[in-house]
Amino acid sequence: MASPALHYPPELLLRAQGIRVAFFDVDGVLTDGGLYISAEGETLKRFHTLDGHGLKLLARAGIVPCVISGRDSAPLRLRLQALGVQHLRLGTEDKRPAAEALLAELGLDWSQAAAMGDDWPDLPVMQRAAFACAPPQAHAEVLAVAHHVTQAAAGAGAGREFCDLLLVAGGHYRRLLEEVLA
What we know:
Oligomer: single chain
Strand content: 15-25%
Number of helices: 8
Radius of gyration: 15 Å
Order of helices and strands: HEEEHEHEHEHEHEHH
Largest sheet: 6 strands, parallel
Helix content: 40-55%
Strand order of the largest sheet: 5-4-1-6-7-8
Shape: globular
């Protein structure tokens, strides 16, 4: 097989090595941040399949995907269930204690954590994680702490880009790609 098409700077890969858990915000990271609210008050969200497959690949590589969101909705729960995401905290604006509880549950610590967020509520998790990532339209304070800003926009593959980077840094990417091509 030819070499994988993805390449990242060595210093970025070094920073992202040893990651065992990845925290994701939802609105503005796994979605474009827009909220569609029906006349009945139902909130609809648009998810990208690239991001969903990235979460599945992380799990296959032994990197636990965790979702921490300020919102809780039936569409979000359905999507996460379909993706097999088992570790989540929904409806919480105080994300640091939620992340710490998940780390304790998994027997991991901040040095093994990566986080992707887009706004102030995500900062406490991103600042403590060994590796922080943000989509390009994230708030300036979030962009300032991110070790990597994705090329792809939120809800349009940014989450997958984060997943791919973690998979390359952890040495899992080539094996997973070869499994698909076998």
